[in-house]
Design a protein that fits this description.
This protein has 195 residues and is mainly α. Helices cover 63% and strands 0% of the residues. It has two domains: 25 residues; 152 residues, Lysozyme. It is built from nine helices and no strands.
Length: 195
């Protein structure tokens, strides 16, 4: 009899806990979809006029906030910057030459990645879908797809992107962006995004 009473109490406590989690879904959502390096993301995004939630979404998809991740292709850091791309950014942005050697640091990687995102926004006339495709497949491939009509640069026709990895990448970044916008809109000032 005593055993059954303990089971009931445990079951009641469990049900109350689950109800509390669903009642306070922001807490649960932030636990499932955390953003790390918030200060670095906010500062770099503000410096370059890009959406901090988009930066966070890219980091989530690229590395899940693991600064030590190194891709099979050699991409470095939280935002998975290719060394050649990072060197180009360092020269174009006027960063100190040693910046390339500091890409493993979260703050440096986020800043260089945010600058690159701004550059892509300029290249693709603020079309965030094209920006995301270019971040993954490269601006040359994305420009070719847009220019020859392979893809029109819209979310509706994202299935036209010829690289499956890039299609999936854009969809995943947008998924996390929507989650972050829902959970963290009050915490970050977001830059307006076109299209």
């Amino acid at each position: 009899m005593r055993f059954l009473r303990k089971k009931r109490v445990f079951a009641l406590l469990f049900v109350l806990f689950v109800l509390l989690l669903f009642y306070n879904s922001d807490w649960l959502g932030k636990w499932i979809y955390p953003i790390h390096y918030e200060t670095d993301i906010a500062l770099s995004a503000q410096s370059y006029g890009v959406d901090p939630l988009l930066v966070a979404s890219i980091i989530r998809v690229e590395t899940n906030f693991n600064p030590d991740k190194l891709s099979k292709k050699g991409a470095i850091g939280l935002m998975q910057l290719m060394p050649d791309t990072a060197e180009w950014i360092v020269k174009k942005a006027g960063y100190a030459e040693e910046t390339s050697q500091l890409l493993h640091r979260a703050d440096v990687n986020i800043e260089v990645g945010a600058w690159y995102l701004k550059s892509l926004y300029n290249q693709f006339e603020n079309n965030r879908y094209a920006v995301l495709a270019a971040y993954n497949a490269g601006p040359g491939n994305t420009r070719k797809w847009l220019d020859n009509g392979t893809w029109d640069g819209t979310l509706k026709n994202i299935g036209q992107i010829p690289f499956g990895e890039t299609r999936h990448y854009v969809q995943r970044v947008l998924y996390y962006y929507d989650k972050y916008a829902e959970l963290y809109a009050d915490k970050f000032t977001t830059a307006p995004l076109s299209r």
